[in-house]
């Protein structure tokens, strides 16, 4: 079951600083289905704002190579503090002009040993 949440604008780009309005639907789903896990997808291009420990116990942060190989160096809590960083669409790296060796090196430096994986459509994580 999918529940809508308040975005305050364009759903794929809006971020709310006050997440309390979205906690209700999460609690409702959890109680209704006795869920062991709820997946919440955040969106937008503000890398720092797409990270909320208030909404999640475990955070998987997904970026893709279309942002270029320097995207990890932009930092932000999603890049540096997520429980897992997924670097997606690696099969498109060459077409995007993205250097995967840079995208492999930078998380080692930025994440203080935190885990990260490469992913692509033809390879299941």
From TrEMBL:
<dbReference type="InterPro" id="IPR027417">
    <property type="entry name" value="P-loop_NTPase"/>
</dbReference>
<keyword id="KW-0547">Nucleotide-binding</keyword>
<keyword id="KW-0342">GTP-binding</keyword>
<keyword id="KW-0143">Chaperone</keyword>
<dbReference type="GO" id="GO:0005525">
    <property type="term" value="F:GTP binding"/>
</dbReference>
<dbReference type="InterPro" id="IPR004400">
    <property type="entry name" value="UreG"/>
</dbReference>
<dbReference type="Pfam" id="PF02492">
    <property type="entry name" value="cobW"/>
</dbReference>
<dbReference type="GO" id="GO:0016151">
    <property type="term" value="F:nickel cation binding"/>
</dbReference>
<keyword id="KW-0996">Nickel insertion</keyword>
<comment type="similarity">
    <text>Belongs to the SIMIBI class G3E GTPase family. UreG subfamily.</text>
</comment>
<dbReference type="InterPro" id="IPR003495">
    <property type="entry name" value="CobW/HypB/UreG_nucleotide-bd"/>
</dbReference>
<protein>
    <recommendedName>
        <fullName>CobW/HypB/UreG nucleotide-binding domain-containing protein</fullName>
    </recommendedName>
</protein>
<dbReference type="GO" id="GO:0003924">
    <property type="term" value="F:GTPase activity"/>
</dbReference>
<dbReference type="GO" id="GO:0043419">
    <property type="term" value="P:urea catabolic process"/>
</dbReference>
<feature type="domain" description="CobW/HypB/UreG nucleotide-binding">
    <location>
        <begin position="2"/>
        <end position="117"/>
    </location>
</feature>
